[in-house]
Write a structure and sequence with these properties.
With about 130 residues, the chain is α+β, with helices and mostly antiparallel strands. The protein is built from two helices and eight strands. Strands 1, 2, 3, 4, 5, 6, 7 and 8 form an eight-stranded mixed beta sheet that branches.
Length: about 130
């Protein structure tokens, strides 16, 4: 239910050798503002704003069942120690004063993490094509 009041979504993923990519979606009434930065290669893409069905974006987030996600994912839960690899963070901010919802991971992911990545990839393709 909190997703109806979403104002910003930040997705960060990367590692030591691959660098870190940050994608930020700021939600307006009937448009999304997209910004991405990739560190390590020091690349910053232009900011893009485009009209879209914001409800569709919220529905896509809702389909991820974020309420069922744990706050932290790592391999230590399975008795495995990894010193390097991929770290990630998903942060959702709300415009109704509610605290941010944050999810983190290091070399471990929720069952539908690939769908989250697809959502951001598709959003960027649509935004930059428009």
């Amino acid at each position: 239910e909190r997703l109806a009041n979403i104002s910003k979504v930040t997705f960060v993923i990367g590692g030591y050798l691959t660098g870190c990519e940050t994608k930020v979606v700021t939600v307006a009434q009937n448009s999304l503002h997209l910004r991405t930065e990739k560190f390590h290669a020091f690349v910053k893409t232009p900011e893009v704003e485009y009209s879209c069905d914001v409800q569709s974006f919220v529905d896509d987030l809702r389909s991820l069942n974020l309420g069922g996600w744990r706050k932290w994912y790592d391999t230590e839960r399975y008795g495995i120690m990894v010193l390097d690899g991929t770290q990630w963070e998903l942060c959702l901010s709300f415009n109704d004063g509610q605290p941010d919802a944050k999810f983190h991971g290091s070399n471990a992911y929720p069952y539908n993490f690939a769908k989250l990545q697809e959502l951001f990839d598709d959003l960027w393709l649509e935004g930059f094509e428009e």
